[in-house]
Specification:
By secondary structure, this protein is mostly helical. The protein is about 40% helix and about 10% strand. It has six helices and four strands; from the N terminus they run ααααββαββα. It has helices at about 10-20, 35, 45-65, 75-80, 105-120, 150-165, and strands spanning about 85-90, 95-100, 125, 135-140. The strands form two sheets. The protein has a two-stranded antiparallel sheet. Strand 1 (about 85-90) and strand 2 (about 95-100) form a beta hairpin. Helix 1 packs across helix 5. The mean pLDDT is about 90.
Length: about 170
């Protein structure tokens, strides 16, 4: 739904996972083999990916100053299960957290979150405040106060609702 640019680094993976469901229509990309393929998921692993997705959404809503959309497993509890390793670049000595195995989605998400925290970009990944949307977007606004995934869609709807409420 968003016309915004992709987030930096591996946060694009987090955004892509959160945005696999359209809350307005109920269409969930993880219901299809084509929708699961980019994440390396099978029908058997889609359930845990949905749990991870909704825990991420709750955190992205918190980044935007909103309460969770529903009760979810705390993200920290899920990420604690992700096997990560510290890697060190021999050329410049830089260190990073990386998945032990590039296959499991949970490990790739954990590494993406760690990279975002280290780079200072994690808190700029947010979820749209529109209750029928909650789409993930990267807030590039100078003050970091973006509210909607799309000003043309969700922002315009919210402003129109406020306008109509004033007129009533």
């Amino acid at each position: 739904m968003s016309e915004r640019a992709a987030p930096p680094g591996r946060l694009a993976l987090v955004q892509a996972l959160v945005n696999t469901v359209d809350l307005e229509t109920g269409v969930d990309a993880l219901d299809t083999p084509e929708g699961r393929a980019p994440f390396g998921l099978t029908e058997d692993t889609a359930g845990s990916a949905r749990e991870l997705r909704e825990s991420l959404r709750a955190i992205l809503l918190a980044h935007a100053g909103h309460p969770p959309h529903r009760a979810v497993t705390p993200l920290g509890d899920l990420l604690a299960r992700a096997p990560l390793v510290v890697t060190v670049d021999p050329a410049d000595g830089s260190a990073a957290l990386a998945p032990v195995d590039e296959g499991p989605l949970l490990s790739r998400i954990a590494a993406a979150v760690a990279e975002g925290v280290t780079a200072g970009t994690w808190s700029r990944l947010k979820a749209c405040e529109a209750v029928t949307c909650h789409w993930a977007y990267y807030d590039r606004s100078p003050a970091g106060r973006g509210r909607w995934c799309s000003m043309q869609v969700c922002g315009a709807r919210a402003k129109m609702r406020r306008y109509r409420a004033k007129e009533a």
